[in-house]
Design goal:
- The structure is a single chain.
- By secondary structure, the protein is of the alpha+beta class.
- It has 14 helices and 22 strands.
- A six-stranded mixed sheet has the order 3-4-6-5-7-8, sandwiched between helices. A five-stranded mixed sheet has the order 10-19-15-17-13.
- The protein starts with a strand and ends with a helix.
């Protein structure tokens, strides 16, 4: 039995099969179908955002009964098909879905993953590398969910290259035992709030590692709501006769800071090169009215309707910017093959093309070490566990993903090792300024060796502590 909501497609199926197919095709929305037991299902459901008010009362009640709560309005329609199909599988039933993989790394996906963990029927999670399109005409992610005929205790995770890896995928589908998954994860260890796109990627050795949030906080960049108004070049600021008190040095775009270090000279080059380099703030203080030139510019903005934009209309006054201090690190929002981390040695604030990292006061002296770590291959492995995958190989890290990124716990290092790490960070900064690739490589490689040494020592210390505790108990 099959369901197809589109009458034209249903008619084309019947015409193409000439009534010879054993599949009974019903021209109906599956979501509204009667809940009958399912022995086997193959589904490529629609990928559309829905709102609960779009569903019939009957469907809403049925979903609430299956989930034990209201289906999130932020989720995608394909999740509803997963809920209804899996909940109707018989004890020996199986199901296969092909859907986008974004839900594995998003907030709305927590509800979906909770459902998967509660039902324990997902046996194989097949993730396709987004750098190669699974569908030639669609820049979307894709994953295959294979649900088994009994409750599972482990989830097999597969990372496939795409169409070029079809032999491995066909071997999985045919049940060849010689083909092994990239990772097998116990259901008891799966966290619905974690990013499942990274399951099986990177090292599982977390000895001596802590979240980046232990050392500081990552926040998104300043969102103006109208960059055409708030972001100006030097010549535009001069033309408008705007005072320096209303102008903040800024880094407006990702291509404004392309090197690993961004300093005052780099910002000056933006300014002198005629590129956007200033951020207009018409409400520098809450008590002082804008000066004449700023007031005229604000009036210009209102004539253009900038005060009616989505973000600006919620601000009081609309031309007041978010108050942010200068960040120590600029962390990339998007990346392909890694994420850039830029050491900010200027007095410029950043817009949303970068996230901003603010070190805790007691760890400001470690910013250089943090920055150097984010240039290493070790950090690239950490990115894989946190990043969100999108179509055409594009990856994304939200501020919360950066905060969870695992970094070495330099607080546990001996002082001499910490001093050496600080020296290597300075050495790398100098190499960036001078353009000496050899010096850069030497600094990064020695730093990696230093990290591996003290992580190994940390692991040995932990093992010794556990052994001592066990002997004490005996």
């Amino acid at each position: 039995m099959g369901y197809e909501i589109d009458p034209d497609l249903a008619a084309a199926w019947r015409e193409g099969t000439d009534g010879q197919s054993r599949v009974e095709l019903i021209n109906q929305d599956f979501l509204g179908a009667e809940p009958t037991p399912i022995e086997a299902a193959i589904a490529n459901p629609p990928y559309n955002r829905f709102q609960n008010h779009d569903l019939s009362h009957h469907v809403r009640l049925h979903l609430q009964d299956v989930l034990g709560e209201t289906a999130s309005g932020f989720t995608n329609q394909y999740a509803l098909f997963i809920y209804l199909v899996v909940s109707r599988l018989t004890a020996q039933g199986r199901a296969a879905f092909i859907v986008p993989s974004e839900f594995l790394a998003t907030g709305y996906g927590v509800q979906v993953k909770n459902f998967l963990l509660r039902t324990c029927r997902l046996q194989h999670l097949v993730l396709f590398d987004t750098s190669e399109r699974v569908f030639a005409d669609a820049a979307t992610t894709a994953c295959v969910l294979l649900f088994g005929c009994a409750e599972q205790t482990e989830l097999n995770v597969w990372h496939l290259a795409g169409l070029s890896d079809d032999a491995r995928f066909m071997a999985l589908c045919s049940g060849e035992l010689r083909v092994k998954p990239d990772a097998t994860v116990a259901y008891s260890t799966l966290n619905p709030a974690a990013n499942w796109q990274g399951l099986g990627l990177g090292s599982d050795d977390f000895a001596g590692l802590v979240p980046l949030a232990d050392f500081g906080q990552t926040k998104r960049g300043i969102a103006t709501g109208a960059n055409e108004f708030f972001v100006l070049s030097h010549s535009e600021a001069v033309q408008r006769k705007l005072s320096e008190i209303n102008l903040l040095p800024c880094i407006p775009s990702a291509d404004s800071a392309m090197r690993p270090v961004f300093d005052a000279a780099d910002w000056q080059a933006l300014r002198d090169g005629g590129r956007p380099a200033y951020l207009f703030d018409g409400a520098v203080t809450s008590t002082t009215a804008p000066c004449i030139s700023a007031a005229r510019y604000i009036e210009h903005g209102e004539r253009q309707g900038y005060h009616l934009r989505y973000l600006t209309r919620t601000r009081r006054p609309w031309y007041r910017l978010e108050q942010r201090t200068v960040p120590q690190l600029l962390l990339a929002v998007f990346g392909r093959g890694g994420f850039r981390a830029v050491l900010n040695r200027s007095q410029a604030v950043n817009l949303t093309s970068f996230h901003a990292f603010y070190a805790r006061p007691e760890y400001k002296h470690m910013v250089g070490i943090l920055w150097l770590y984010l240039q290493t291959p070790l950090a690239h492995g950490a990115f894989e566990r946190q990043q969100r995958a999108y179509g055409d190989g594009l990856k994304k890290l939200e501020p919360g993903d950066w905060n969870k990124l695992l970094v070495p716990d330099w607080r546990q290092w001996p002082i001499q090792a910490l001093r050496r790490a600080e020296y290597l960070a300075e050495m790398a900064q100098e190499a960036d300024r001078m353009g000496t690739a050899g010096q850069w490589s030497n600094a990064v490689n020695e730093f990696v060796a230093l990290i591996q040494k003290y992580r190994a020592m940390h692991e040995q210390t932990q093992c010794a502590t556990v052994l001592t505790q066990q002997l004490t108990l005996v």
